[in-house]
Design brief:
The protein is an alpha/beta fold. Helix content is about 30%, strand content about 30%. Strand 3, helix 1 and strand 4 form a beta-alpha-beta unit.
Amino acid sequence: APALRAAGITGEPLQLAGASEATLVHFWASWCGVCKAMDHNVVGVAEDRRVITVAVQSGGPAEVEAFMREEGLWQGERPAFDVVADPSGALAQQWGVTSFPTSFVVDPDGRIRSTEVGYTTELGLRARLSLAD
């Protein structure tokens, strides 16, 4: 998988490398209707699995935070799942993402084990993560 090391929208460092379990890397956009329909599936997975999401062409950290608060994707002081703002779409381009949402499951060795374009259920995401652990 391409490297993924960036600051999350609340300033915390996020990186893909060094995980002891599979990671869901989920690319979404605030203007994508299917992404909105899938948000709560990602929230469910993030409760007990490693998730890094990338908000593509959805503004900087402040705009992404405002969108997430509006959509009920904020819990206390932080987002319901880790998110990196990708206002220019450069990260999406590095990963070859051309449609939204796109979800990758990356194993602990950094290999992409599955790629799903479009709506995926929480159960479907969990199954793919389990197979990649």
